[in-house]
Automatic annotation (TrEMBL):
The keyword Transmembrane helix does not apply. This is 3-oxoacyl-[acyl-carrier-protein] reductase. It comes from Thermopolyspora flexuosa. Residues 3-176 form the Ketoreductase domain. Belongs to the short-chain dehydrogenases/reductases (SDR) family. The keyword Oxidoreductase applies. PROSITE patterns: ADH_SHORT. InterPro entries: KR_dom (IPR057326), NAD(P)-bd_dom_sf (IPR036291), Sc_DH/Rdtase_CS (IPR020904), SDR (IPR050259), SDR_fam (IPR002347). NCBIfam families: PRK12826.1-2. GO terms for biological process: monocarboxylic acid metabolic process. GO terms for molecular function: oxidoreductase activity. Keywords: Oxidoreductase.
Amino acid sequence: MARSVLITGGNRGIGLAIARELSAAGDAVAVTYRSGEPPEGLFGVRCDVTSAEEVDAAFEKVEAEQGPVEVLVANAGITRDTLLPMMKEETFTEVIDTNLTGAYRVAKRAVKGMLRMRRGRIVLISSVVALSGSAGQTNYAAAKAGMIGFARSLARELGSRGITVNVVAPGFVETDMTASLDAAHVERIRSNIPLGRMATPGEIARVVKFLVSDDAAYITGAVIPVDGGLGMGH
């Protein structure tokens, strides 16, 4: 039976790859997007995860279209990179509000239905920098690290209700975000990756697909690195 799936930030990059992967597996997939157009063939809902009202409205539309959300992937995120001495406070809080508090907003809303169903899968998309750190990304790394503590606490809260909560921590992935980096910077990054290359969005998507499958029913509170070995030791 098709499950109702919601992926935030699902109109491009990793989020879109996850949406395509789960849709191909037979799930009913909805994606949120903040700007642009919804992806072809997927149910799209415009939503800014920094607004609790928009999150609630998005869930209502998804529930009306395909039923209560049984699988949530919190993927929506932004970067506002700059070194701390030059970082304005709103630059810090904007990233926290979107990446971390946004995940709280969508998880809180999704859990209501999951508790009634006594089943569910929640996956938060974090990052290798959550544990390794990254110069110029104190805001982003703090948000992505916060997702891990949030997910593990939530996993303890929800485990007895048949709901799993896990984290995927991608390394550097071939997306629009990394395409904007200059070639020398990309080469420095690649030289530190044991596998010697960036990931494709599909490689992240297939790990998420596993975590929301029946095969991962006994995995919760886990942080799964998909980073080519970049974050080893963390």
